[in-house]
Amino acid sequence: MKKIFSLLLFLFCLSLSAQESIRFGVFAYKGVEQTRKQYAPLAEALSEKLGTTVVLELLTQEEMNAKMARGELDMITTNPTHFLHIRQHYHLDGAVATLEGYNKGVATDVLAGVIVVKNQSNIKKLQDLKNKKIATPSKTHMGGYRAQAYEIYLNGVDIAKESTIIQTNGSQPKSVEAVLSGEADAAFIRDGIYEEMLEGGFIQKDTLRILNKQKSEHPYAISTRLYPEWPVLIMKHVPCSVAKKFVAALLSLEPTQELREGGINGYSLPADYLKVEELSRALRLPPFDKAPQVTLLEVLHQYTVDFIIVALSLFAGLLYHLRERRRKNFIASLLSNIGDGVYGTDKDGNCIWINPKALSLLGYSENEVLGKDQHLLFHHHKHDESAYPAEECPIYKTQKTATQENAKSGLYEKTALFFQWI
Hints:
Radius of gyration: 40 Å
Distance between the termini: 125 Å
Number of helices: 17
Mean pLDDT: 85
Low-confidence stretches: 7-19, 411-416
Structural class: alpha+beta
Shape: elongated
Helix content: 40-55%
Strand content: 15-25%
């Protein structure tokens, strides 16, 4: 009995201990080991401030999504576009803090993308990337793909459709290596990676060139506009008291040497991520990859005046059509039933209508007459069998005179109808 009690007490303490730890998910965009070096000092500093162990979970975005779905993470930090997807999919509130990066003595809470090509490459401008091979760590990377894709999109090229994208399993250095080896024409990497590779001796200074280099006070060379740095989010199941302490600890962090060596100066109040949302909407990235459902009532409300104008125009057109059809039917019925033979021509003298009496008198079928020149059918010769020129034909002269009069008065119609009695 004592053994069972001891075991239950041990399990209770173990469970309590597990609850007291904070599981902090970090998108490992530099790879697991490099990201661990960057964020381990942060986890230690937070653990010391909170009096609670902060356990790092270094994950891909797919792994992070799966763990969030199972409730296995308490806090997370990831790139801004992934943040928008998470916020909507998991119904989270906004960011609670934004990262302040650190490099070369400068702290910054913004990031950007970089495009590198070989120094001797004939790629000179963003439009030249059309139909080229582009290496990127992943299409999910904000600074390693999406910032560049948006910049190129604004210059008239949709690389997702018009270029070949080579993904290097999340590795930014491998994207650069793909350019050096000739496997790719250009590489997309996040700001700071190019400088790290130069300082580490992985690339030589004159081998690569930065495309679309921006004039900026940013500490790194960049090819795109600047976007807010990584946000921090808190999961819904985390108690409010724990969340408050965690946010307070983040915002009160002092920038130690260990943190700055990992590129972290601290955290500031959450930034405005509207620019990231505009990028995501333009590129149709999650959560904006599907067209929104629009109800009929919303369409009617937005375009009420337009619908009224169109409806009135259609109604007026319908009334005119019905009136004209009744008029034509009346005339056709009247002429068809009179005892005389009558046919009608257009302004060019082509027969477009003929009544049964006229067909009987002339000895033609309707198919033989409609669309044919009435002069060539009925008036091609005079009574003495001599040729009858069209310009001398009274019917032709009547048509010509009527057409000229209509044109002068503004009543000219291309399909003017002339009736001839036989």
